[in-house]
Every structure is written in structure tokens, then in C-alpha cells.
Design a protein that fits this description.
By secondary structure, the chain is mainly alpha-helical. It has 3 domains: 2-59; 63-168, no CATH class; 173-236, Alpha-Beta Plaits (2-Layer Sandwich), CATH 3.30.70.20. The protein has helices spanning 2-9, 11-26, 28-62, 65-72, 77-89, 98-107, 112-124, 127-137, 139-163, 192-196, 219-228, and strands spanning 173-176, 180-183, 201-204, 207-210, 234-236. The strands form 2 sheets. It has a 3-stranded antiparallel β-sheet with strand order 1-2-5, with no helix packed on it. Strands 3-4 form a two-stranded antiparallel ribbon. Helix 7 (112-124) packs antiparallel against helix 9.
Length: 243
């Protein structure tokens, strides 16, 4: 039973491991190439994601919620759309680096539509990409492709924002006495909370959880953990002035 529970808790990892095993048995060279490629991407993520987490946390501290709601919220209209395209286009790094940033914006009041525009722009119309595209495929190709892509993004974002609401997004919270909340679905498994405050937080299946047997909460440690969480998955609602 323990083995089955372990497999269920780590189903994705076991599925990937099984796929590698099958490749090594039937196509050894493909298995070796897959391991090499996976190692390259894991190394890339380990180099990039810590920086992304730090920058996201700093932006969360520096930019007030009112500013996000005003410029990227549901009432931002065409200005919000334009700003979303700018944010996505001038960004750096692979697309997976955008998700912690976008989670932070969503929590601070950005609209679903603008988040979709940011992610789509980040993926397909970044400025460095456009300059390389113009060099190899020509300015005319780049301009036509850019116009059509932007049009498609706006249409897709408008449709998706009608279908997907913020209430549909993961928001499972684990509550500890004293008003401590942990959004386990938003948690990205960075382990900062468990490292900074192991008496109160622990990791299981690459997710953070609250230790319900913990004694009185140390507010200094908790304050540091809340500020360090890159996706702001931890809240303490009993006294906002303390945190």
C-alpha cells in the first residue's frame, strides 16, 4: 500500500521513468539521447528559476496591488492590453519562467485576458525573436506574421477570458490554527518555506504543507517565509500589521 501511495503521489515522475526504461529496452540510443536532453533542460531550469523566483518576489513587494488592478485589471481595457503586449514582448527567458510572474500578477488583480496576452506574447512575439526572424526570413515576413499573431492573441484572449474565470483557477488552501493559509495548488515546490521554517512547513510530493503539530508560530520566521515565497502561496490573516 505504501508503494502504491508513493506512486500515486509521484505519478508524473514514475510515468517519465517508465518511458525512459521502455526506450532503453527497445531503442537504447534514443534513451541515451533523451537523458542527455533532459539533463540539459533540468540544468537550464536550475539556473533560471531561482532568479525568476527572486525577481518575482521583489516585484511583488515593490508594485502595489492598486497599480496592478489599475493597469492590468478588468477595467484597464485597451491600455491593459497594450501594456500586456509590452510586458510579454520585452521579457527574457523561456516561457516556463513566465508562470511565477503571472501567478503574482493574477493574485494582485490582473485580468485573465491580460495574463493570456502576456503568456502568448512571451512565447511567440518577444523582441529578440522578432529581430532574428527579420534577419533570416525578411522584414516583410516578420511584419505580416507579427500582425496576424497579435490579432490571433487578442481574439483568443477575449474568448478564453469569457470561458475561464478566476474562480476556476486552483485555489486549494490548507488552513492552520491562527489564520495561517497555504495555497497548495499555487505552490511550485521551491522548498524555501520548509528550509526557512522547517518547524512549521514541510514538503511532500513536491508541495509545501503546514505542520499541524507545530507549537506557537514564530512571527519573525513566518514573516520571512511569506516574503520569500515567489508565488505568494502563504498568508497569515490574523493581524496584517504583523506580517
Amino acid at each position: 500500500m505504501k508503494v502504491l501511495r508513493k506512486i500515486k503521489d509521484n505519478l508524473f515522475i514514475f510515468t517519465v521513468a517508465f518511458a525512459y526504461l521502455v526506450m532503453f529496452i527497445f531503442k537504447p540510443q534514443m534513451g541515451i539521447d533523451s537523458i542527455i536532453n533532459s539533463g540539459y533542460y533540468i540544468k537550464e531550469m536550475l539556473m533560471i528559476m531561482p532568479v525568476v523566483f527572486v525577481l518575482t518576489a521583489l516585484l511583488d513587494l515593490w508594485i502595489p496591488k492598486e497599480k496592478i488592478e489599475k493597469h492590468l485589471g478588468d477595467e484597464s481595457k485597451i491600455k491593459g492590453v497594450a501594456l500586456s503586449f509590452v510586458l510579454g514582448s520585452v521579457s527574457a527567458g523561456p516561457i516556463y519562467a513566465a508562470f511565477p510572474f503571472c501567478i503574482m500578477l493574477l493574485k494582485k488583480g490582473a485580468s485573465i485576458k491580460n495574463i493570456i496576452i502576456i503568456l502568448s506574447s512571451w512565447a511567440v512575439i518577444k523582441i529578440p525573436m522578432l529581430t532574428i526572424e527579420a534577419k533570416f526570413l525578411g522584414p516583410k515576413f516578420m511584419i505580416v506574421r507579427y500582425i496576424l499573431t497579435v490579432t490571433a492573441i487578442v481574439i483568443f484572449a477575449a474568448i478564453a477570458s469569457k470561458i475561464v474565470q478566476k474562480s476556476d483557477l486552483p485555489a486549494k488552501e490548507e488552513k492552520q490554527k491562527s489564520g495561517l493559509l497555504l495555497n497548495t495548488d499555487a505552490c511550485m515546490g521551491c522548498t524555501l518555506c520548509s528550509k526557512n521554517y522547517p518547524e512549521l512547513f514541510y514538503m511532500k510530493s513536491q508541495k509545501a504543507y503546514i505542520n499541524k503539530n507545530a507549537e506557537d508560530i514564530n512571527l519573525d520566521f513566518l514573516r520571512a517565509v511569506i516574503k520569500s515565497c515567489p508565488v505568494k502561496a502563504i498568508e497569515y490573516n490574523i493581524d496584517e500589521d504583523e506580517v
